[in-house]
């Protein structure tokens, strides 16, 4: 069975973006970026992969799920991850101008995807979608940045059940960023 991983950058106070959905305050330079590029090249948008000469097969993920605001982030790119199967959860969009499929029932779709063969499923954002999918999230991979935003889009937004996770690994980088992985704890 495939796993659903919420692989996301977050501030120390638990925000994945500023109130307008921007993420420019996160660190894009430093040794954590080398690890990200080497270990998770699948999570890089196509334009960045092309500019960096990355043309390797996917290592971790072959599918991405994102909320509408993540997909339509200001200055966003059409078909940002053509090397992955792309889904955007939305009740406002009915189609996209690219190869991103719109889904209205993300929980059912994730359960279907988990039954297929393949690599992992990447939950890219946002907070409301993460709260909806929390029962199906198998792993949290948090890239914790040494910033406090004070407000913005939370890691999880909305009503959701208390869910326990167990720490699996933590890596600390000189940049101050931590990569911390949690796996769903047994009830």
Automatic annotation (TrEMBL):
The Bacterial bifunctional deaminase-reductase C-terminal domain, residue ranges: 3-178
GO MF entry, a single one: 5-amino-6-(5-phosphoribosylamino)uracil reductase activity
Entry superkingdom: Bacteria
Alphabetical list of InterPro entries matching this protein: DHFR-like_dom_sf, RibDG_C, Riboflavin_Biosynth_HTPR
One Gene Ontology biological process: riboflavin biosynthetic process
Gene3D superfamilies: Dihydrofolate Reductase, subunit A
Membrane spanning stretches: none
Pfam families, sorted: RibD_C
Protein name: Dihydrofolate reductase
Source organism per UniProt: Saccharothrix carnea
